[in-house]
Write a structure and sequence with these properties.
The chain has one domain. It is built from 12 helices and no strands. It has helices at 3-16, 23-33, 42-63, 65-79, 85-106, 108-112, 118-139, 153-163, 173-183, 188-210, 222-246, 253-273. The protein is globular, with a radius of gyration of 18 Å.
């Protein structure tokens, strides 16, 4: 894979992972409708995609490093018997990360086959739009948003169930988890914040499993993965900064429509290339 191609894929990953448009879906579709020379079979492409996600995860961690410091400090105080809102929130983030972690490990092999199927990725981009429209509807139901620190373990776990959807190319991690968070009364900004916080552990955990597979063997993707991951990190940091401001006053509807248009357009393009 050319380094310029890796950089392009990293740019798309860094933007689409956080803008609720499913970076996985777009990165699965793109090689099928363009002349980009990338290995689209799941066993080769998945570790590369996870490396791009690692760049995104590191960018999220750095953007929220102040939050993580307070959360980890709060957890340490919690373990020492001093209950703090920050320590409690970190417990909720960890609880929310459990469902996707378990399902990702249990269904790793069957899910990997979807990373070469552009048609299904395009279909799920359309479904992704409907999920976000549902999220908007949930978000309008509450006149006064719930404080993010008032989430309990059951609610956090159920929001985490929405993150399972992101294991399917075409379904957005941020769009799905924000929909779940809006359903429990969080504001759009707090829903985005919780979504980005809970994405960080699961992305880093997936990277620990998949990224070592890039070293040696027949993959030959370590260099491109490093370049793509660095570009993804920069794009993700800028995307996060924009979105945290955007969701102070805006909803998911625009992204829902864009996702549907991308899905329908991709179905047409994939059909023309079959």
């Amino acid at each position: 894979m050319a380094l310029s191609t890796a950089a392009l894929l990293g740019l798309i990953q860094g933007i689409a992972e956080l803008f609720p448009l499913s970076s996985l879906g777009i990165l699965v579709i793109l090689p099928h409708v363009t002349h980009l020379a990338v290995p689209t079979t799941g066993s080769r492409y998945l570790p590369f995609l996870v490396a791009l996600h690692l760049g995104t995860g590191l960018a999220l961690f750095l953007y929220f490093i102040g939050d993580w410091y307070r959360l980890i400090r709060g957890l340490i105080l919690w373990l020492r018997g001093r209950r703090t809102p920050e320590g409690r929130l970190l417990w909720m983030v960890l609880v929310a990360s459990i469902p996707a972690g378990i399902v990702g490990l249990a269904l790793k092999k069957p899910l990997s086959h979807l990373f070469g199927d552009a048609t299904w990725a395009a279909v799920f981009l359309v479904v992704n739009g409907f999920i976000m429209l549902w999220g908007d509807r949930l978000g309008r139901r509450r006149a006064k948003p719930r404080d993010i620190r008032d989430l309990n373990a059951g609610q956090a776990f159920r929001i985490g169930l929405f993150q399972i959807l992101a294991l399917i190319p075409g379904l957005s991690r941020s769009g799905s988890t924000m929909t779940g968070a809006l359903g429990f009364g969080l504001s759009y900004r707090d829903a985005a914040r919780f979504s980005f916080l809970m994405a960080t552990p699961i992305i880093l955990a997936a990277a620990l499993v998949e990224v070592p597979k890039l070293h040696g063997g027949t993959h030959g993707l370590m260099g491109p993965a490093v370049v793509g991951g660095l570009v993804a990190a920069v794009a993700a940091w800028l995307s996060t900064r924009f979105l945290m401001r955007y969701f102070e006053h805006h909803r998911l509807r625009v992204f829902a429509v864009i996702s549907m248009i991308l899905g329908v357009g991709s179905l047409v393009l994939v059909g023309l290339h079959i």
